[in-house]
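Table 4 source record.
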Amino acid sequence: MSIAQQDLTYTFRRLSRAPGFVIAVVVSIGLGIAANATIFSMVSRFVLRPAPVGDPATLLALHTTHDGDQCCNNFPEPVFEDVRDQAKSFSGVAAYNELVPASIGGSGEPERVWGQATSANFFDVLQLPMTAGRGFLHQEEDQQVIVLSHRLWQRRFASDKSIAGKAVTLSGHSYTVVGVTPAGFRGIDLILDSEFWVPLGNVTSLVPNLSNNTSRDMHWLQVVARLKPGVTRTQADAELGALAKRFAVAYPATDKGNGFLSDQAGSLPPRDKSTVLLFLGALSVVVLLVLCIACANVANLMLSRAASRQREMAVRLALGATRMRIIRQMVLESVLLALGGGVFGTLLSLWATQALATFHFPAPVPINLTLSIDWRVLAYTFALSVGAGLFFGIVPAWAASRPRLSNALKGEDVLARPGRKFTMRNLLIVGQIAMCLVLLTATGLFLRSLQEAANIDIGFRSNGIVSAQVDPRVNGYTAERTVQFLTQLRQNIASQPGVISAVVTDSVPLNGGNRSDGFRALVKPKSSPSRPSEPDPIVEMYMATPGYFEAMGIPRLAGRDFSNESPTGPKVAIVNQTFVDKVFGSDNPIGQSVVDGDTTYQIIGVVGNIKSRSLGEDPRAVLFRSLDQAIASDPAFMGYTVMVRSASNPADVVTTLRRQIRALDPSMAVYNVQTMQEHLRDAFFLPRLAATLFGVFGAIGLILAGVGLYGVMSYSVSRRTREIGIRMALGAQAASVQRLFVRQGMLLTLIASAVGLPASFALARLFTSVLYGIHNNDPVTFATVPLFLALVALIACWLPARRAARVNPQVVLRSE
């Protein structure tokens, strides 16, 4: 048998005799590995995973820029065509509009689906193999053909293998299925969840507000390009720069100052990359702290185990074993234990990633934030497990391999060094508590942030309201017919028992974003709140029907509500208090007019402020338009939300909603059905997610640090039993013995706090942009967390100290 086999056999035999020790180590390391694997699954999903296409390394996403601004923009269609026809660095350039709403009919209930409109060469440029059929042909640019996602094919068409060539109804139009994408393909956008693809020639019949889509000012297309063999990205960027200069000369009115930016297809958008990377980086630091705490805890266990094996080590060294052989065998034991922790942590991470799927991002479009344990996560977990095993195994192995043989053979502590005030165990526990303090501070900040977010005045009510969305436009409705449908629907629902009111809007507040534009007063106010040189304030725009503000609980401060305004009459608007402050100052806004481009609105009312896009935003100026008047010129892209206020059971209200919609139009898809409280829960996505993650990590770190301190103090008591017996025999009181050990543990805690607090302040600076209602140096958190940690440390020290105070000196001295 080889030496390696001997070491392995011996290690397994030793571990099998200490199941409690093995479980303690595997659980400790497994918790740290699970935290790291879960966060790294986010990194893999949003940073490392390539686009799900053929040869992703040569597929680039192209963006337009303006005046050197690196924030990416979409392409106008003529600019895309110019790049496609003139760029020589690419074997193919394709374009797509990433958000195409539609209603799909056929068997079963009508369903709202989202897809993309693409150039005919889209799937060729992606080099995407199909599960069934094919992609688009060049001559099908204007044809009504469709490619289905694998998921939609399974859900709506029962995985019909002969689906190619059959017709499906999309938004009232018949489309011929030509292909089905492979499983898992949802488009090359990082988080969008697309379910169908149609040629670009169909976009004007499916997407509103694209009547001017051939203008060089209309930025509405995403563009991807495939590098030719042998061409580098640097060479392609140089050619794109030359093309931008050429276009600026040819089209100075629209293209002057424009440029191009390339990025790896399927990666984070440039405008969001820094924020996401900062958040993931902060999370990665935190989970590494959890693992380091676990490693320090296990290192202390290993030191204690090495001390219990001192006679064995001394005998082996005396019989001629080399220090390297002993170190190698102990490190092998550590690595095997860490690998066991890695397996346990991976299983925990599988559960954790599924639990994170319950968090829904508040967006009106389909978002895919699912996480999975892929090969990158497994490779990272394996490397982390081996590294952790080396980290907590080498120091105990090195210390255990160099005992004083005479002392060890007499049973004295092989790791004890006379005159040392701070042993290796003490240093490890100081590091544990310091890291735990950093972790608990971050946890405290996010728990306080969640608490403050829950106390934010959102400006509207959340109880007793159920909402559902419909989009008559995708069923071929004209603006006039849409108004008739929505009006009849409101009247029918309002007449049902238990319903207090029914209203319609184009977007629910806290939905992540809405249309906005610049507004100015038609006549300059006497008390102008801004200088003439300042730009018009950006205003959030909503549509609403009569009764909307009462149903939502938004207080009306002045003027009147909408009252079934004539679609062809003078346009009217209701504004919030922030709008008044920014546009009119102290002047009375009622009866005044404001201008948005070529459209003039007369203000008929003022209402209270609401949170429009996010919980943490500063008060935004908001203007509400009459839905009946605005729907003709500005159809809602996301559809219309019917909001029902009722004292009835929400499930009964949902049933009533669906029944009334089906009665008016059986082909109308109903989607995004939820209560307002569910909507608000989704709006708390970021503070809930952060508080949950940091709460779990903080609890793990606190338990590990508390157990570690308890273990160190217990070991100190066990090694000093003889000393305690002598002290008590000479007259020492139990209370003084308790104080001796409590003082020792609290001194370690004090030193750890002095190290951990500066690190906590430094880490907290990373969280400034994701905290709600508190500062990153929140005094409540930084005062409470150290005190709480000190209390836990006191308990961890007091328990062993109490045991020490109960030592019977007669029994101890008799055993000596």
